[in-house]
Amino acid sequence: MADRLSLHGLRILAGTTPLVHDVDLQLEAGEILALVGASGSGKTLSARALLGLPGPRPGVVAAELEIRVGDRVLRPYQGLAEAVAAGKPGRFWRKAHQAFRPVRGHLVGTMAQDARGALDPLWTVERQLREALDLGGSSDEPAAVLIRAGFRHPQRVLCLFPHQLSGGMAQRACIALALARGSRFLIADEPTTGLDPTVQEAILAELQRLASEGIGVMLITHDLRIVPRVADRVQIIDAGRTVESLPAQLLSSSAAPKVRELINATARVAGGVL
Amino acid sequence: MKLTAWLGLILLMIVGLIGVVTGLLPDGWLPYDIVADVSPSDAGAAPSAAHWLGTDHLGRDVAWRLVLATRAFVGPGLLACLLASVIGVGAGAVSGFLGGPIAALVRYLSTVTASIPRFVLVLLAIAINGNSTWLIGAVAGVAYSPAVAEAVFSRIDSLQRADFVLAARAHGLGPFRILGYHLLWVNCRRMVGRHALNLFGYLLLLETTLSYIGGFGVMEPQPSWGNMLAFEFGYRTDNIWGVWAPALAIWVTIFCCGLVSDALAERRRG
Amino acid sequence: MADPQLRHDDTPSSDLARAGSWKLVFPVLRLVAVFMLTLAGAVLAIQLLLWASPGDPVDLVPNGEEIRAQLEAEWGLDRSLPERYVQFLGRALRGDLGSSLTYRPGATVTELILPAAGRSLRLLIPALLLSMGLGLGLGLLTAGRSSVVRRLAQVVSVAPVFLLAFVAVHLLNELAFYGMEAGWFGRPGWFALPDTDSAMKSSLAILVLAVGSGALAEVHAAVEDEVVRLRNATFVDAAVARGAPVWKHVLWNLLPPLATIAYGRAAFFVGGLVIVEKVLHLNGAGSMLWQACRLRDYPVALGITVLAAAAVCGARLLGDLVRISVDPRLREVAQ
Question: Which of A273, B117, C254, C319 is the most exposed place for a label (fewest CB within 10 A)?
């Protein structure tokens, strides 16, 4: 059975306002799922729920998450429903860090939008990689991980500090950090936003390469244009609900009104390239 | 502003008012004679109708001395705030607006002045030029102005590049209007106000410390909250207010300065 | 498609990329130069205090008339201000700050103030460390939420140093007195404060200096600001998402702002030290300054002031050195 990650029935509240309502997410090893939606639609919140990150505030009040890797099956949200029903969500969240420890960084890696900001500004790339390698119990050398992340001259990069890296290099470094832990799944949160087109190409190619090596990639983006070329499946989220979930090639033929709205707007802006 | 901050402000204004009034009135007008009011038979008496806070160990009325002591620091405090504001805002605004070598020079002068501890500077100044609470106020004001100048400089420097300044220039508004109103009044007045409050509290601290230690500041028989404390130290009387009235007065007044200053702080963004 | 992009991608954004961690020489030299320039400026300002006051400086000295000739030679009163300044600076660099006139006539200023400064440092450094430690601990505890502890720390800390010392001494003495009267215990070794030298007195001095005149409250507020800023930082969030231990990142990143806070308080602490030494009858550079001022011994007073300025500038230099060694972003020379 292939490695897979499935989230079911996610609900997130901020006080009494629902931010995410009954969202399902599924990701298989080796596939690229594009999670698309306007800013503030709840896509990042939903993805972070895979890591148990929204925490008590804003509150994840319901979720069933099953992560299957090899022979291991993890259900980190077990106990949340009971705790919420009893009115004591704190009981669950106090133990949440334990439950999610094997998930965060290890089974599921993250690439933040601000790649340079995601690295500790005081540490060299080498030191950050060593920390990740030690955490994952790997005996690889940092240089080797950098090569797997697509760097051609790892020695030059190891002694650099985050503020000395270009945007593209920083993204690759984050990929390297995820690889160093041996993640099976990768959440890439708007990795191409703010980068120039040539670099965007390179990063997307990198993600495709990772998928071909068996890593499941969840690509969060608000740019519909990259979806058909890179993703296998696409899921569109609007105002905290899943609007549509289908294979990427079928995107332009979708009939859902919100989807058509997005497609048309993208076409107007990009000149009909979809 | 929160309720506690309003209470603090009211208290500060009362103290200030008393200080100004007692400072301006000639001595003969007050129904209390500092020099003559010595009656050892009354020493250490508890509060009564005649003496609202009792008497100290020389029989002098604590309440009146408490009130009269305000003139020792209110006037000099206001002087210090005035000096620090004028010099600080002037230097900070000019260097922030003009930039370049002028800014560098002003910042260098600020750093140099800030390198000498303020208390040491004041002590040296009064040792050389003679003891006077007004001199204390003046030196404290000048010594504090670098802090104001730095704050104003960095605020204006960062706002210089702001879009609304470019827009104002594009509309033809003159530099004085931009600097005077838009930059200084709108953006800096709270910050300068906070610094002034902190300085006022610092001057109270300075004056009472010097008067407590003696030899400088306010000398007997003129009252100061500081020398009232020093005077009662070691004397055991029935009137605890001899010690605690001035102590609380100092504590509460400085606390209120900080309270109002915090209330003026701009809400942090995000 | 991949290869050309990679080659483009490998180019770092900064020209000093080669530098890595060890190009510290230039920034350090720059900091030392700033230190010397600032101290020189401070010395000039101190000198101006004396020379720029109205009247003849010689008149300020109690027995000035008798030793007018000696004073004029030593202070170079017949020369212009810049010359006097250079003369003073030259002598000072050789360790000659003149000799005491009235405090201890005949002794050189240097041999008087240096041992006293050593005694004072034994109070100053523990007080600074205590203040930073308490501020850090409290800040980590209360950052980001409303707390009674913060209010309490503010209320206590806002009292002037002399007032805290006064209250503490008063209460301790009263307590000892009642205790002895009631027979609970015998006469404590430190009774009666502040007349006897004791560990209690020195500890009290350090505590009062660390907390009073707003010292603790300001360190606490500054630390809270930094901790809140760090907690919201992207890399801290990313570390949590990666499952990495966060505390290492947070503490290491707190070090530069802590160094800034520490040297920012230096001038304040030196001023407070002068007060504490006098109020608690301790023997150090601070109480020497008071005596010198009372006796109008200007060489000694000026010497101690120069030392105080040097301590403040030195603290700034040290803090900046810590900052650039920890934070690589500060090493590159600002354009």
Answer: A273
